[in-house]
Amino acid sequence: MKGLFGEDRLCGVVAANTAREMRLQIGRALRKTRTLELRLDYLRSPRERESFLAWLRKKRPRAVFIATCRRKEGGGLFGGSREKQIGILAQAVRSGCAWCDVEIETAKHTRRDELHRALSPARVMVSYHNFRETPRNLAGIARSLNGAHGQAIKVAAECHSVSDSVRICKLAETRRDAVAVPMGDFGLAGRVLSPRMGSALTYAAVEQATAPGQLSLSDMADLYRVAELSRRTRVYGVIGDPIGHSLSPLLHNTAFHAGKFDAVFVPFLVRNLREFLRAMKAFAVAGLSVTIPHKETILRLLDDCDPLAARIGAVNTVVVRGGGQLYGYNTDYVGALRSLERRVRLAGSRVLLFGAGGAARAAAFALAQAGSIVCICARRPERAAALARAAGGQMVARAALKQEFFDAIVNCTPIGMYPKGGSPLSSAELNCRVVMDMVYRPRETDLLRAARRKGLAIISGLEMFLAQGFAQYEIWTGERAPENLMRRAVVSALDREEKSRGLRS
Length: 505
Prior knowledge:
Layout: E1 10-14, H1 19-29, E2 35-39, H2 46-59, E3 64-68, H3 82-94, E4 99-103, H4 104-107, H5 112-119, E5 123-130, H6 138-146, E6 152-158, H7 162-170, E7 178-183, H8 188-193, E8 202-205, H9 217-223, E9 234-240, H10 248-258, E10 263-269, H11 273-279, E11 285-290, E12 304-305, H12 307-312, E13 317-321, E14 325-329, H13 332-341, E15 350-354, H14 358-369, E16 373-377, H15 381-391, E17 394-395, E18 406-411, E19 432-437, H16 446-453, E20 457-459, H17 461-477, H18 483-500
Parallel strand pairs: 1-2, 1-8, 2-3, 3-4, 4-5, 5-6, 6-7, 9-10, 9-11, 12-14, 15-16, 15-18, 16-17, 18-19, 19-20
Antiparallel strand pairs: 11-13, 13-14
């Protein structure tokens, strides 16, 4: 359905120092969307602006262009006066821009008739930006924007929780002329979901992000398929802290698309778990993948859970049932078992788990069930002892690792995760035949490189990540996971990342 800004609610943000780069970005953006914001304040000089607008006036690409020349007081780069700002926007209108975004700091100091006369026949969107926080009185801010009598309003604010993101998105639920922009890491999922909640636009960077948490146009168009989202689309997500490293959105969105399942999978940065579980209802979340540090904590906040997950004491998968009831599962159990049993004869083997968190708990119970002698070593000895008792295993002191021998050692901590790197164990502590790292990004961590140098067999955390993800997909959809497609998507992404970082020849 055609919206206020045309057919595309996904708006590509074109921002560059030179007219040439602006032109190139427009060409790239038009492959994904026909709605584009032109950040004229990013052009480095009046000459570059004039050159770009002359080109635009001559070429008139088929698109809906929104001209923006944001002044510094409104969070932009333009250092000139309000009068010069309005003059540049008027030039953009003569060059074919159908909309102008005028921040409230300018609109409130300009007479309404003057503003609309200067920018006619373009329509005006009056915008509010707060790069510090999400104000409590969003309704009052919306009323002040309405007072400028534009044809649309926009509220963009930094989020410090998922609740903030929800409050911003809710501004657009009951009106067709509102653009809701949750900013920052906590607002990332909201940027994807805001059109589903009614926002007239959501923004994405063609090349460089112009606001905190702004995703790339390619990710918004191809990974999250924002143009296809509707209120019928089911929402799934991964929750954790940190969450930026996760490839779960790629894994599951690939599967949803292949299975023609009307669903989207988004990342939620979550620090306060209780707050998130209350807020997620507004986004109509149907299921969750749970990662560090919430796998154990969430167990106490569920309505019910699978007996195996209860026995393990950790949950990594949640289904939202009728009436909003939360039901938990543990698919890390399957992931750990499948990854290790291909390289180690588990029955009678001696396996050291380094770490005692949620992932370690799943691995401990899986290995014990398979007949392994489970040994636990952790930074906090009391947690290691408690897990060893629960799984019927043994606690091993860190100081003893150089003298002990194991059939396999498994890192169950996040140490080594991209981008920080590092290894949880020294080479001298790797006295075993096989080393497995649950960290999957990068595929070959510092720990695995140390093991390879010692001539040991290694298992990447990618195998566990994929196996637990396949099981999650089947729980959520009731259908068999398209494993080969999911694997190829993740492996390709890791290949590109490693190549760009010079880790592969």
